[in-house]
Structure prediction request, 557 residues.
Amino acid sequence: MGRRVGRAAVGLIALALLATAGCETEPQIGGPDRPIELVDAPSVVTLAFAGDVHFPGHLAGLPGSDDSTLGPMSEQLAAADVAMVNLESAVLSGPGQRDTKELERRDSRYWFRTSPAAFDLLDRSGVDVVTMANNHGADYGRAGLLQTLRTAARAPVAVVGVGRDSRAAFTPHRVTVNGTTFAFFGADGTTREGANPVWEAGAATPGIAAARSDRPAQLLAAVRRASVRGDVVVVYLHWGTEYATCPDGRQQALATALSEAGADIVVGSHTHQLQGSGTLGGTYVAYGLGNFHWYNSGQPLTGVLTLRVEDGVVAGDDWGPASIPAEGGQPAPLGGGRASTAVSTWRTLRSCTGLSPLPGVDAGLPQYAATVQPIGPELRARLRSSHRAGCPVPLRDLRHLRIPYVGFDGRVHRGEMVVRADLADDVVGVFREVYAARWPIARMRLIDDYAGDDARSMAANNTSAFNCRLVAGQGTWSEHAYGAAIDLNPVQNPYVRRQGIEPASGRPFAAIDRSRGATVPAGAIRSGDPVHRAFTRIGWVWGGVWPEPDYQHFSAP
Prediction:
């Protein structure tokens, strides 16, 4: 960390800092009574966070290589003033014996270990603070944890969340950057895996900083003490339900308790999935950072969360997306359209968290302003392909909507659709919710721009509503002919029929898991997401639950 404080200083003061500063204490010159005052330093500090890191199996030899790092994403970690990750492993300098973990299911027991060189690798990767409060930090029992603590005392990175007793385990790493003092805590909220006392540090016994209740007394007391001191309090938790993309009730209860105790930033990992981020009162919460440097790519999406802290308050967040390669190991940054899609996906994860966007940052979308207009002469001429004599709804009973939406590029666009007049206000409300959640839409144009051809519109990934047509292969009117149905992002949400998948470009998305909490690509609809919730709230039905699922389709009852 000292190398980054030095970049913020000026002149000879910077040289003095580089010569004397350390991670554990506030930098000083001329004795303890004369702290350095960087009067010209900015009051802005950047913090970077990444998820779970370990080195099992084919990754075991990586820390022993003198130039090894966490890979290209290390640049984003090193660019921050302080970077923090979760090391999901015991650190052993010699042989060790596995803890029995008898409280865990026999088929779900895993033991991870690595060498002391892992701390050096993390340091080379730009990491400053490491939490080891997790369900693998004590995999090798009391003796293994004591080895870890002896190694951590000499490590080039600060280690939190473990200690020789509970007081030490709940002691934060404190550091001052640009005049702002931070206190970094680590705590484990996962289910206890063994009866060994090492899984919960005691008054006189070594172990993990355990926080397994909704209101863990020791953690909350430590946070209050740091908050009273005026520190910016950061808590990194290992918590949540594995493979869930939405926080569970315990995560939300603990986040609320920490916010009330004075925590300024709460981040977490453990679920192997990304989870949403946003604000809870005055606290920034990132529920899940996912796997980061992991031995497999079962859940490949990952990244680095960078927070901009101005005068002690989180003023901005940035997600640097990455993907874990097929063979596991070092995550690689995403670029171009893949990066834009990944960032959009990350933003939409907030929809099930109860969190709010950052004021003036995420909430910086232009005000949602949709319009509802009768079908006038100009639009009547445009609707020649979608409306004709004999249609079940006359033009006077239809309305033209102009609707802002967030595209896959993250920018705001303005689209249009036609719906039945009595449904117009409800539809405007639905897309207001979709807009606020930044749920991405590829395009939104009248079906007439595709000559009324539903196949062409789907192939173009066009979101559309009214089209006076029959049900495919039948002689009855489609719900679209009544202005009572909307199809969204047909490529990401195809119609899966026995005869085939429509559009054909939707095949890669036909079999993805769309259950509640599942991770889906940007623009794909799943149960419980912002689109599904918004339409369900007004009583509309999702075609995704049909025997031949039409994932793009919502219709009025």
Summary: The radius of gyration is 27 Å. DSSP finds 13 helices and 26 strands in the chain. Residues 371-555 form one domain.
